[in-house]
Amino acid sequence: MQPHFGFVCALFGSVITFAFGIWPESLTLLLVLMAIDYLTGVIAALREGEGLHSNTGFWGMVKKGLMLLVILLAHRVDVLLGSDMIMGGAIAFYAVNELLSVIENYGRIGLPLPPQIRRLVRVLRDRQDPKDPPSSDS
């Protein structure tokens, strides 16, 4: 093992703690949902015969990185205000968004989904701002 390995680990841990504070389980859930969304988006694109496009994949990853930056910012605002609600709200918002995207991808892949869930996703997506482009994270 390299003698600097401990230093690198400590530095990485310090950066993560500065960015997100004490690591909540909700942040772990969000990261898992992000990974599943990306993977199912890739599988759905292959299943639909669209193939993989590095530009689409790149922008999907950039979008997920920007979500994490918003959560970092929300944590810093929480620290400033002495609260713990803003980061939690941001994580909840993005987790629900990622979950909807995963469900959409499952539908694109052809996995069976209860009709109630399909309707719920359709209703929630139809309520998004008409100026916003449809989500495409594959």
Descriptive keywords:
mainly alpha, 138 residues
Structural features, described:
It contains 5 helices and no strands. With 138 residues, the chain is an all-alpha fold. α3 packs antiparallel against α4 (86-109) and α4 crosses α5 (115-126). The longest helix has 28 residues, at 54-81. The chain is globular and about 50 Å long.
Task: Name the poorly predicted regions.
Answer: none
Radius of gyration: 18 Å
**Which percent bin holds the helix content?**
over 70%
Amino- and carboxy-terminal Cα gap:
37 Å
Task: State the gist of this model.
The protein has 138 residues and is mainly α. Helix content is 75%, strand content 0%.
Please write out the topology:
Layout: H1 5-20, H2 25-47, H3 54-81, H4 86-109, H5 115-126
